[in-house]
Amino acid sequence: MIPSSGKQPEATTGVLLVDKPEGWTSHQVVDWVRRRLGVPKAGHTGTLDPFATGLLVLCLGEATRIAELLTHADKRYVFRMRLGVETDTLDPTGRVTRIYDGPPVDEARLRQVIADMVGAQHQEVPRYAAVKVQGRRLYEWTRSGRDVEAPARLVDIYAFDVLDHTWPDVTCRVHCSKGTYVRQLAADVGRRLGCGAHVSALRRTDSGPFSVLHALPLDTLEGMRRDGEWKRHVIPLHAALSHLPALVVDDPSIRNRVRHGQVPDSWLDRYAAVVEGHPGPVRLMGPDNVLLALWWPAAPPGGRRLKVFQSPEHLT
């Protein structure tokens, strides 16, 4: 828990977990946090579509500099798909393009198709996606009527389970790698079944080590705004990166040099064996769990070896 860091909003640094409401874009949530909580610098680590709800991991202040280390985390979702109805966007916001008029799909077959989806695979990016193709967003090409080849990306489905099935709705839980499109996953299930499908509701429950169980809705944050209580829910840098190995810099003179990016190789080399096999980054920690810098012990000549954090994490 982090108490208020004082009157200056720019001192707020860390990760804030927000439970995104339906109908909001991820950018709108970030903008709300900037304006209502007085945080000049903020960004998210993975977009949620407007119709989706759930965990949005926000980086505040200097934590924006570690966003790239959090965006590659695996994700978990609970979602509902409607079998027998296809839409052009693969979700409830799109135009219906096909309605299946056959009999309900056998549940045993449904479960088998879903089980067969587990594993590494190349997934086509949905036509209404924000990825750039030839300099423009793919959804812009689609809306303009221009037919461009949608890229495919390698994704991994670690687990895919049916939680409930009452035709034509199926509630599922999926654990997947970064970059997986759940709506494309549902469309692929529908295609294999022959009846078509689209995602009718989607909720992100986890992103890496972070859970929606610890996320705050916007109305709760609004209620905490005036007295700064929300700051007690900001996860400090060292804790947000707790999955990385850490070395404590005990020597004050070395700590000072770390803050200026001037750590001697002789000091770093003393700890090379500790992180052998780990390309980095490694957390270089000061007293009171302050993150001084990130160290890449295996950085190539001329490559970045240190990322220094000038703003201390105030824990008092």
TrEMBL record:
Ranges where the Pseudouridine synthase II N-terminal domain occurs: 34-182
The tRNA pseudouridylate synthase B C-terminal domain, residue ranges: 183-241
InterPro entries, alphabetized: PsdUridine_synth_cat_dom_sf, PsdUridine_synth_N, tRNA_psdUridine_synth_TruB, TruB_C
Record keywords, A-Z: Isomerase, tRNA processing
One MF term in the entry's GO annotations: RNA binding
Catalytic EC class: isomerase
Functional summary from the UniProt entry: Responsible for synthesis of pseudouridine from uracil-55 in the psi GC loop of transfer RNAs.
One GO process term, biological-process aspect: tRNA pseudouridine synthesis
Assigned protein family: Belongs to the pseudouridine synthase TruB family. Type 1 subfamily.
Protein name stated in the entry: tRNA pseudouridine synthase B
Reaction catalysis annotation: uridine(55) in tRNA = pseudouridine(55) in tRNA
Active site per UniProt: 49 (nucleophile)
Lineage, top ranks: Bacteria, Pseudomonadati, Thermodesulfobacteriota, Syntrophobacteria, Syntrophobacterales
EC number per UniProt: 5.4.99.25
Pfam families: TruB_C_2, TruB_N
Organism of origin: Desulfacinum infernum
